[in-house]
Structures are given as C-alpha cells and as structure tokens.
Amino acid sequence: MLEIQNLAAAIGDKPILRGIDLVVPKGEVHAIMGPNGSGKSTLSYVLSGRPGYDVTGGSATFDGQDLLEMEPEERAALGVFLAFQYPVELPGVGNANFLRTALNAQRRARGEAELDAPAFLKLARAEMKRLSMPDDMLKRNVNVGFSGGEKKRNEVLQMAILKPRIAILDETDSGLDIDALKIVAEGVNAQRGPDFSALVITHYQRLLDYIVPDRVHVLAGGRIIRSGGPELALELEANGYGAIVDAAA
Amino acid sequence: MSDSITTETIDTVAALAEGGYKWGFSTDIEMDMAPKGLNEDIIRLISARKNEPEWLLEWRLKAYAAWLKMEEPDWAMLRHEPIDYQDLHYYAAPKKKAGPKSLDEVDPELLKTYAKLGIPLKEQAYLAGVEPEEGARPQVAVDAVFDSVSVATTFRSTLEKAGVIFCPISEAVLSHPELVQKYLGSVVPAGDNYFAALNSAVFTDGSFVFIPKGVRCPMELSTYFRINARNTGQFERTLIVVEDGGHVSYLEGCTAPQRDENQLHAAVVELVAMEDASIKYSTVQNWYPGDANGLGGIYNFVTKRGACRGARSKISWTQVETGSAITWKYPSCILQGDGSVGEFYSVAVTTNHQQADTGTKMIHIGKNTSSTIVSKGISAGQSNNTYRGLVKVLPKAEGARNFTQCDSLLIGDRCGAHTVPYIESRNPTAKLEHEATTSKISDDQLFYCRSRGLSQEDAVGMIVNGFCRDVLKELPMEFAVEAQKLLAISLEGSVG
Question: Which structural domain range is residue A168 located in?
Fold first, then answer.
C-alpha cells in the first residue's frame, strides 16, 4: 500500500507539491489527472527518487517503508516502477542486457536467486508474446531509434518483466496512437491483481477508457483538490479542469 | 553474445569492486638485477646475459648512440616530472633453476601471481608442460613475461606442428637469428623516436611470432605483461611476422603492482603482414595509474607500428587503455601493399590525474588502401584525454579511403577531452571522412538506470560499456569480458 501524507516538494526555491495526501491500497489502480504544471510529473519523480527534487515536508511510504529515505535503486528493488513520460536512450546498451541486469540487481537486493541468460530470455520472450511485441525489441539498444510508441511499449515491457508491486505511469499515453494506447493499456491490465497497484498519471481521459481506475484524483496547484470514482474522469472530460479548479478555489 | 558478456560483467563488478587498484600486489621472488643507470656497459651486460650474437649488440649500441643525441618529445598534451634515466634498473630477471618440468618445480610465488592475474589453472599447468586434455577449452597460448624474462611459454608443441613460432624474443634471437635480424627494426627503426631508440638499446624481452605462408595460427596468442621489480623500466620488444596468406590474433594484457615511484615503460611492437596476411593485435592495458592524488603510476611510452607490406594485407589494432599515469601511444599502420587495410579501435579511460595522449597513424602508400579509426575517449576526475591521429595519403595512393570516428565522453566537469586530427592528402582521389562527438553521461540516463534497480556505479559501467561498444566488439571474447570489467572498475567512484 502506498501512503502519501502532506507531501511537499520543491525544485530549488520553487515549491511544486504543496501537501499531497493520497492512499493507494494494494491491488487498486488510481488515476491522477490535472492540468499542465499541476505537479503530476514531480509527484512521480519524488516517489521514484529522482535527484534534483527537494522534499520539504510530509511522508511517503510503501508497505510501511519510508520511500523518501531510499535510493532510487532501493525503491526499484522494493517494487516501485516508474514508466517514464520520455524514456531515455542508452546508446550501445542492448535492451536484453539492460533488462536482465536490472532484474538481477533487484533480485539480488531482495535476496532472490539471479536469472541466467536462458531463463531470462524465456521470461522476456513470453512477456513479449503477451504484449504482441516483435522479438527484435530485445536486441535493439535501449530506446535508441525507437518511435514514440515503441518507447512507451518498451516501458510496458520493462514493467512486465520487472513485475513491480506499484507502477507509476507518467503520461504513458502521450504521443500514442489508439492502437499503441490499447497495447500499453493491455500491458498494464495484464499486471492487475491483488499484489499490483498503479498510479496512472494522465492528462486525458482517453487512457482511462482502457485502464479503468478504481479512483480518480485531480491534482492542481500541487494539491489534490478532488477525488472520486471513474466517473470523475468523464466529468473532467466533459467540463474541463477549469470548473473543478474554480470550485476548489 | 556480446550482450550477455556485458551482463555477466556488470554482474561480477560488485564482486570485484573491492575499491582501489585490484592488481596492486607484488611478488617476492629472488631477482637477478643489474645496477641502476644506463651506459654502454649495462647494454653489454644485458646482451651478454642473453648470450646475444654480436650483430645484436652492435644494433643496441647504435641505438644507444642515437638515443644520446635525441631529446624527449614534448609535443604531446602530457606533463610530468623529468625522468631520471640514470636512476632506473635496466635489467632484472627472476633467478632461474632448471626449466619448469612440472607444476611442483615452478616457484609457488610465481604460480600465485599467475592466479592473481587470472591466468586459468589449466594454462598454469601448461606452463609446466602438462599435456592438454582432449577438447578441453578454447585454446589461448600464453607467453608470460614476468619482469624482463619470459619464464615459460605454453602450447609450444601445438604451435610447432602448425609451423608457428611463438617464443620469447630473446630465445628467437638464438634459435631463429636470420628471421629476427631480417625483421627487427624494419618497421620501427632503432632511431625512430626517443623512446623507440631507448627500447632498442636496452630491451630485455618480449614476444616473437612467426606465421609461415598460408598458416592460420590455430589459437590466439597471448602475453601477460607485468612489472614486478622496484624501479625496473620495462622495455618489451615484440615482433610479429606473418607471411603470405597467414593469420594471427595476438592478445596483450598488462597489469602492474602498486608502487609509489613512477615506473617507465617504453615498449616497441613491430608487425609485418605480407600478401593477403592479416594480424589482429588486441591490448588491454591496466598498468598502475597512480593514486587518487596523481602520485605514482606508470609512464607508458609505447611505439607500435604495423607494416602492411603485401597486397590485400590487413592489420587491426584494438586497444583498451585504462591504466598508467601517462599513456603515449599511437599504434599505426603503414599501408604499403595495394588494397591493404588498416584498422584502429581504441578505448582510452582516464580518471583522477591520469593523462592519455593516444591515437594512430594511417599512412596510405599503396593503391586502394583503406583505413578505419574508431576512438572512444572517456575522461573523469581531473584527467586529460587526447586523441591524436594522422591520416596521410601519399601521391600514389589512388583511391585511398579513411573513415575516422572520434567520440569523447566526459564524466564530471574537471576533466578534459581533446581531439587533434591531422589529415594530409596528396592524392585527389582519396576519400576521407572524419566524425567527432563529445558528450556527457546525462543525469537522465543515470536516473533511468537507477529507477530500474541498477546502482549508480553499475549504471555508469553500463553506459560507458555502451559508449565503447563499437570498440569492445572488436576484441576477442575473453578479452572483451576482461575489458568490460576494467572499464567499470576504473570508473568506480567517478560519478556523484
């Protein structure tokens, strides 16, 4: 369970998050929606431990463990996964090598046995088949020369292989056509279960047609100003953020 | 395949990462050592200890006379305290009993050293002449240079059957004097440059390889170099000759024990490739680089040159340079034969206060000669890393082609990367391409890797290995693994 209490964070002198309260129980998928500049990406970076963000108050725990005290790789080993809005290119680094190294680093940190190359390839191929991804995805360099859609699919593939306990999807739908969007959504839905929760950050309601959230939260001005069921996303789609932001002000 | 190597490497880095210079040990073996200083008498002593023929002594003395008239080159981007050439030992040899007939007869200290160096146990056994098991493992012949004398040479008989000569050059001088006399100094003349002249005067040992006409060497040949005696300059001399249609792949790897004093290393490597012959020469260089404050470390002034004498011959240099306080090294190809091919693939890593000025020279003489240069420089700490390369096309080199790619990766903001390409073309049909980039390991890349579970250091290792991939994939398999480990270990602690 992810528990965030009164979380505040800044970049330099500029406060971005101004007291976020949020609980994502085990097995649930929550959506965070909000206008540009509301702090959505900052929230995802603070939770995953990106350097450059100063936590100025509050707490964030996962299954009772203090995330904010942990290095990014420790959070990953704990089961926190961030699907990047702009996945990063690693020239010369093969996707399979990258993924296996990452998976084994996590397994090592958890005291689990590492996977040898054949076992890893078997796992990766099975996941790729499930996600209808071509085999050569593993052979290519990490995100190098990938189209926008391929990069996002690669994020979902990583998630499928690393099997996090909580996935934070930072505008994973941006730049995707409808087919790619469906594949990405299916990838997330395939992970759903009692031990998987997700925080789906999105600008548009469209993604939530395919990943139906248990709860929807509206983030504006660094605070969650309203929470509700899936119908809240539809309301936002119909009326825009303006009405809700004004109502909360 | 290379992917799984990288994975394996990164996996083992944690285990290897004990911090500091892993190979910083020295071995306690009785040494036979000449007094400090350099003069004609010392040269006569070296020559006498090796029972050399008169012509070689004369050759050495001529080189010495030439060296006395020369000055240390100062054009490289390197700074160091003046070297006191009279304050060095020019000869040191482990005291030898009879040749090792079995493992029991080999000095246990020496075996321990081999073990630390990672020479596989079976090869240690081969050192003692134990017959190999049938179909045991990929064969690598090791000519271990322990200080100045090659202690033992392996795989001798298999190679002999193929007609290949692979032995210490001091031995070749005695057993194949006509070959050595014909080729020694034919690529790098005794008076070629300051350090080559010094080497010619005082070289103590090194490897000699001769591949006769039409023979593909049945195994990769390998030499482990190691400086072991205090204040002993290392002056290796390697000569590789491949006759028409022959092929050899030669691996050279160096590690050195940790010392406070600077140690001078001035090796010379000469390669000769005749018609349709090819030579692949791979180096992993990990001499002691000095401590974090720049104290100590090896001064590595190396002259490496290959002559593509025959038509369609090929010489390929691959080097991974992570060690030494100073690296001054320009493995070159003289592309004399029509259609001959020269290649230079280089990774040079500098950290702390290391300085590297390295690159290549491709001299196009014959028609339709082509050369490829791929250089990857990685600088961290307060180090300086310079690529210096010359591509020269002579008037008769119709249709010469060169492609040069120089990439620099900076880690931190106190290091320097410099690219100094010289291009001289005297034939209008030549096609020369040069590409250069400079980049940094981005915070985005590091965070991306860490968010997937990699530690900061594993992330750096992975990104750097990716950056060097075009070079590393040129290395033979075993070396590729070692090189990737070295890259990751060398850069530990250089980020964040």
Answer: 2-89+162-248
